[in-house]
Every structure is written in structure tokens, then in C-alpha cells.
Give the backbone structure.
Amino acid sequence: MGAARSLQVEKPALGEIRSLNVISIGCMALALATLEIALKEAPQRGWLSPLVCGLLAISLLSGAAFVRRSLGHHKPFVELRTLANRTFAVGCLLSFVLGIGLFGSTYMMPVFLAYVRGHGAMEIGEIMLVTGIAQLATAPVAVALERRLDARLLTAVGFALFAVGLGLSAFQTRETDFAGMFWPQIVRGVAIMFCLLPPTRLALGQLLPSKVPDASGLFNLMRNLGGAIGIALIDSVIYGRAPVHAQSIIDRLKQGDIETAKMVGIPLALFRNRPVGPLDADTQAILASMVKHASFTQAMNDAWWLVAILTFAGLLSVPFARVSRTKQDPIPVDGRGCP
């Protein structure tokens, strides 16, 4: 109720409906829909499967048609020309990278806790609450610093911290639980606000007020798109690397590697005194479950490393952004008083 009364809401411009480019909207919807389906199916079917390749081809062609019509229309549905602003383009790239890490970490934690640790929904929620609490506690500090310091500096610090927080989760074992996830979540929770506020100012701070509504939609779309692509990449790594790790674990166990037996969770007394000959069905089932959990954990660590590296790589774009002028930064003028 308070927000409805205090926030300024523009009146809907119903007349704009007549100028909508229906074909452009259709191409965009088709491109995004086929891309989402392809990303969903790729980890299970394979990136080179006929279905995935066909969907990606349709997405590419319809996306190209959307871009062409948008750039050639006097009043496009999405103003892609705004990406010509270098700082806005950097902000969109950072939003995309943040989507990979933000949605990816929110996806990987419950999958690990449910599959490897066997936790239920309530227990998973209680463990993951740490990130939200850290983010909430950091919000006032981030807002205060965002008003006083260079947005590029805060953005670099935020993405560096976020990458560290993601990388700290890449050392999980099959026994990792709340205690092992506590500090990585704290680091990520503190970093998230600095990955949200300063990049938003970088992206939208230099644009004319008339361009901000359309640009903000594109800016937020990039974050959601990054999340979708990031989760697909994560699934590809997990389901692609898990069988490789499983075979490696089995090979080392056959060679009598004690450290591998510890990592998998096999009692050392049982491992050292194992009988000669084939294992019975019950023992095979138990060992198969242990190997699956261990290989899944290692594959998930690979995915954590991937997301951390991509997030850190986003830092390379920060120096290319320009700081928006403030009231204390006068616009230079020539001798005639013109900017």
C-alpha cells in the first residue's frame, strides 16, 4: 500500500500498441523459447544431438531476424542500439555473468544437499538461508558505499569476492554440510549486493531518462539469460564429468588405493581385508552408491570451478566502463559555452 502511494507510476501509453512490430516480437519469442528448450535438453541428449542442433539453429536464425528487424525499425520493440554505449554493454555483460553465478550457485547447492547428503526441502532451506542473511546485512553498507565510491571499484570488488565465494565451494567432499558451506555462502552473500547495485549504475547511469525503461528491461534479461545458459553448462559438466570421475575412482580402487577408499567412504578394515574373488550383489550395490556420490561430488566441484572462473573473467570488462558524470563533475564546454 505504501509503495503504491509513494512511487511514481507512469500512465500506460495504450496508443503504443499500434506501433508494435509483431514480427519482431514473434522472432524474439521464438529465439528465446528454442534456446531455452535446447539448453534444457542438451545435458541429457548431448549438444550434438539432432534435436538440440535443430533448436539451436532455429534460435540463431530467428534471433538474427529479430536483430535485423529491430535495427531497421524506427521504433523497435527492444532498442538494441543502446548496446552501442560501451558502458551499457559492459553492464549487460556483467549482468549476464552474474546470472551464471547467482542462478548456478542457487541450483547446485540444493542438488548436492538432496542427492549426496539426503536432506529434505526444509533442511536445505535452513542451510541456504545463510546467503540471504549475509546479503540482507550487507545491503545498507552497499547502498552507502555505492553513493560515495567509484562504481567500477565496487563492481570489481564485488565480482572478485563472488568469484572467491564460488571457488571456495569447489572443495566439497561427500561429507560437506552446513559447516563446510557456511563461509562460502557468507562471502557470496556479501558480494552479491556489490554485484547488483554498482553495475546497474554503470549500465544505466549515462543513459538519457527516456532510454532507461527499455534499457533496464534488456539489462535484466541478460541476467536471466545468463542464468539459463549457466545452468545448462553446469548440467553438462556434472553429467559429462561424473562418469569420467566414477571410472577413475573404480580404477584406483582396483589398484588398492587407500586414499581413494577413504574419499569414497569405504571402511578401511573392509577394504584391506576384502575377500578374493567377485563381490556379492549387496556389496556391489553399496559400493556403486558410494562411487556415484563421490564421482557426483567431484563433477560438481568441476562445475563450481567453471562458474568461479567465468565470474572472475567478468572482471576483465570493468576497466572498459566509463564512470557516469555526477553533479560534481561539470560537463566541459567550449569557448561559446556549448558542450
